[in-house]
Amino acid sequence: MTPEPAKREAIPHRAPGTTALCDSDPPTDDVASATGPPRDRPGALGPSITSLPVPDVFAALDGSPRGLTHAEAATRQARYGPNELPSVGRGHVWRRLVAQFTDLFAVVLLVSSAITFLAYALEQPRDPATLQLALAILGVVLLNAGIGFAQEYSAERTAESLQAMVPHTCRVLRDEEPRELPARDLVPGDVVLLEAGDAVSADCRLVEAHEVAVNNAALTGESDAVARVAEPVPAGPPLEARNCVFMGTDVVAGTGKAVVSATGAATEFGRIFRLTAAAPRQVTPLQRQVAAMARRVAGVALATGAVLLAVRVPSGQPFVDTFVFSLGVMVALVPEGLPATLSVSLAIGVRRMARRHALVKQLLAVEALGSTSVVCTDKTGTLTQAEMTVVRVWANGASHAVAGVGYEPVGEVAEAGSVQELLRTAALCSNARLVSPTGRDGWRVLGDTTEGALVVAAMKAGLDPAVEEARTPRVAEFPFDSVRKLMSTVHREGDGTYNVCVKGAPLELLARCDSIDRVGTRTPLTEGSRAEVVAAADDMAGQGLRVLAVARRRVTGRRPALGDVESELTLLGLAGMYDPPRPEVRDAVDACRRAGIRIVMVTGDHPLTAEAVARRVGIVRGPAPSVVTGAQLDALDDGALDGLLAASTELLLCRVSPEHKMRVVTALQRRGEVVAVTGDGANDAPALKHADIGVAMGASGTDVAREAAVMVLLDDSFASISTAVGLGRSVYRNIRKFLIYLFSHNIAELVPILAATFAGFPLVPITAVQILAIDLGSDVLPALALGAEPMEADVMDSRPRPRRERLFSTAVMGRILFLGGIQALGVCAVFFWHIHASGIPYADFTRDDPVYREAITMVQAGIVVSQFFNALAVRTDRQSVFRAGLLSNPWLIGAGCVGIALMAAISYAPPLQAIFNTAPLAPADWAVLAGFGALLLAAEEARKWVLRRRRRPPKGGGT
Asked: Cα–Cα distance between 210 and 195 in angstroms, integer?
């Protein structure tokens, strides 16, 4: 059989809208304001449209069975706006650009620049060096803001481009003709044409329904298909109205027509969007730690500057000169290159994650992923392939294995001849269509996935469902409903009789059977036979399979009604199916276990199914995991829930609602956990936004879920989460490396200034402009190269760092002081050696003195050269850099060489000499500086050797 090609692509993502004409609440002011100018809103309509007959529905919604004209549609769109959700929470571009200047480092530097400009304006005569300093500081702020904004903007645009690639179209009656239009053009009163495989682009009231069934998982979390009708129903909660379809849901069976009653923020989808917009975004661990670090550094810088001002002014130094000098000290303590380096390093992490199918929309979320201690994950599509597959068929008292995975009709059915009739009947009693691969898409099912699995199994058994349907055409269908738990179809045979095909829940169907098929012979269904069937069904269910029973009945005479169809049936057997786990997930789960990350499955599925999948992928390994349903969660108060989360190492939450998921996330955060949450439906959006890391599905997720999340999985796979966590940890390690690198040289810049002050030297050993040249010219590229270090092999072999762990731990601060102290001693030595060797008294030195210019050039060059060796030293914490590979990061070597080349230009190029007040250095000077740098690397290698010796186990096998 050649599967039927799709008439058009099923639209997995929806384009929500902004207007309403019926039951849903009006949009909030926040949402309305985000869409632009206020627009007219329709008023109340009186009685609910769900209870109105079809003719009155058109009157209530100001529509027509023939659809709207283009002119009327244009008028309504001008009045109500396009059918799309506003981009809430992101703000205007200029506001996000201005936000880059609110960072504490930026504020300190801006104030310093303003004061320096003021000092330049007040001093007489005006010193060009003061103006250069003011401009340089201002340039640093602008550069950092530009880099940070560009990286964040780029990440957001990448996410939006992904969404823009998804087609948002629908079929609408316009001018009495069916047309395919962008979903954003829908307006209230439009008549929408629906069929299996379509996505619903607005809230609608059905006016025609032919065996329509929809999947409301995006709104309710329940993946079972729900039948829909066009007849009036009593007024009640909108989601319970059986004659309405809602934005964000999918039509899985049947055809119909519906009138648009609400769009956008006024729909049920939009209501959840408003809840999501109201939920505050969680602050990441790195944001908290960088903010704390900025406060400490700013405080130290201000205090040091104030102390120096207080010391130098009484000594007779001019106030303006002393003030500018103190500002230079403050600038020396502020790591000007840190914001740019941090932004670019995080952006590198974003790109690396994107290559691993994880799209991160916010730069700071990269590092937060590395802090993750708990992952609350969905089951379907994330741990599994979202492709139901029949794996066992029970018939004639025996179990038959079905090979193959997914929707590709490749595989064998054991003893296929004895189960062909069962699979033929199951396929005839299905509305799903199998679609052959097109482009990058593989085999797909249009319609209910359970029915698709039965169709694929029939094809594996050698049947052609299209041929069977043509041979025995369907003449009636009685859709599945939650009361009967059955679906029946009636087919006309060639001899004029009718073949009734029924499938459904085993116990419900068994109760309607009076016989069972035994190798083609109808035999009475005894109590022993019933027990045998129940045992077979229980055995399949115990293995986590979804079990359906299949039966038939031959009817002569007139076409049977529902009462005649589902009685006196002959049971053909059972089909057991499951959604197979993704093959890469088990390794990812193992990696998370090694990393000390706890995995909690949160699903709307049955507990037996959830546990079976959890065991297959390795989430559950013990004999008795904690399996808790939504009803049981409702019975727990917060204290009992905290106790459950603390005591249960293997926890499965089943039959849960979005509210349950939100409550569990809050309880985990209350215990100090950093929580990542996955979700795909609009109903998951509040939990996604409330979590520390919200993870949405890119292939199957809704627009609202992707908007709420900070990370989107392009392949929907749990393995991508595990990889992203590893990359996040690697980013954190790299951030610590370049923080040690940056702050250690700040000590080398500050100590000579302090030494000169207390030694009575009237000038500074290094000027503020030189410091800025080091921070932004010589140090940024090596720091970036450190931030781009590849992920280490052992990054997932340690537990998550505690939420309260400081970025500047005792070990990090000790290392900064150790490396910075060595650099400071070296540059102080070369400076005062030059000054003393000249024999000139301190009081006689001026800014233009050649000896002074050469001395401050030595200080600047000494810091640059020692930083080259420092960059090599900080690449590892305990392992020797020679063992790791001195040249294994060529970008770092190249960046260091660029910094030294820039320093050489500052030393030898006359235009730069005039700006930085430097002098040319002799080859012997460079040799001395290189010797100091090598000494720093040797000292750090010795420190690492001592640490390795302390951690080495004693001989004899002790620990």
From this structure: 9
Do the beta carbons of residue 876 and residue 888 sit within 8 Å?
no
> Can you tell me whether residue 602 is helix, strand or coil?
strand
Question: What backbone torsions phi and psi does residue 867 show, to the nearest 5 degrees?
Answer: -70, -30
CB 202 within 8 A of CB 260: yes
Residue tagged 């809050």 (tokens) = 666
pLDDT tens string 172-225: 998 888 888 888 889 899 999 988 767 888 899 999 988 788 877 777 766 567
What one-letter code names the amino acid at 661?
K
User: Residue 657: CB partners within 8 Å, gap ≥ 6?
Assistant: 221, 604, 630, 683
Residue linked to tokens 């914001």:
339
Which stretches does DSSP call E strand in 698-794? Answer: 711-713
Report CA torsion sign: 881, 882, 885, 887.
positive
CB atoms within 10 A of CB 210: 13
Q: How far is CA 127 from CA 116, 117, 121, 696, 742, in A?
A: 11, 11, 10, 57, 30
Selecting among 378, 579, 605, 684, the annotated active-site residue is 378
Task: Establish whether 716 is a catalytic residue.
Answer: no
Residue 619 to residue 626: CA distance in whole angstroms: 12
Please enumerate in sequence order all residues whose Cβ is within 8 A of that of 392, keeping only pairs 6 or more positions apart, or say none. 399, 400, 401, 402, 540, 545, 575, 576
Are 597 and 730 in contact by the 8 Å Cβ rule? The answer is no
* DSSP β-bridge partners for residue 487: 503
Buried b (16+ CB within 10 A) or exposed e, 102-136: ebbbbebbbebbebbbebbeebeeebebbebbbeb
What pLDDT digit, counting tens, does each position of 681-701 carry? 666 777 888 888 888 887 776
Q: Spell out the alpha helix ranges (H) of 334-430.
A: 338-355, 363-370, 420-428
pLDDT over 90 percentage in the chain: 32
Helix pair angle (850-873, 890-908), 10° resolution: 180
User: Is residue 504 classed as helix, strand or coil in its secondary structure?
Assistant: strand
**Closest C-alpha to 109, from 328, 312, 310, 315:** 328
The DSSP bridge pattern shows strands 433-435 and 398-401 to be: unpaired
Q: What is the DSSP string of 627-696?
A: EEEHHHHHT--HHHHHHHHHH-SSEEEES--HHHHHHHHHHHHHTT--EEEEE-SGGGHHHHHHSSEEEE
pTM, whole model, 2 decimals?
0.65
* H-helix or E-strand spanning residue 474: strand 474-478
pLDDT at 37 over 80: no
DSSP per residue, 845-896? --TT-HHHHHHHHHHHHHHHHHHHHHHHHTT-SSS-HHHH-TTS-HHHHHHH
The whole-angstrom separation of Cα 708 and Cα 218 is 14
Which residues, including other chains, have CB under 8 Å from residue 72's CB and lie 6 or more apart?
Answer: 189
Nearest to 578 by CA among 415, 737, 457: 457
**What is the full DSSP assignment across 76-97?**
HHHHH--SS---TTT--HHHHH
Helix axes 285-312 and 104-122, enclosed angle (nearest 10): 30
Question: How many other β-carbons are positioned within 10 Å of the β-carbon of residue 876?
Answer: 18
Q: Is there a contact between 28 and 271 (Cβ–Cβ < 8 Å)?
A: no
Any residues with CB less than 8 A from the CB of 251 and at least 6 apart, and which? 194, 195, 196, 197, 198, 199, 200, 212, 213, 214, 245
pLDDT in tens, 766-810: 887 888 788 777 777 888 888 778 777 778 878 887 777 777 788
By C-alpha distance, which of 439, 435, 392, 380 is closest to 700? Answer: 380
Return the minimum-mean-pLDDT range out of 122-136, 143-157, 426-440, 919-933: 143-157
Whole-number Å distance between alpha carbons of 56 and 230? 13
d(CA 781, CA 875): 15
Residues near 355 by Cβ (< 8 Å), separated by ≥ 6? none
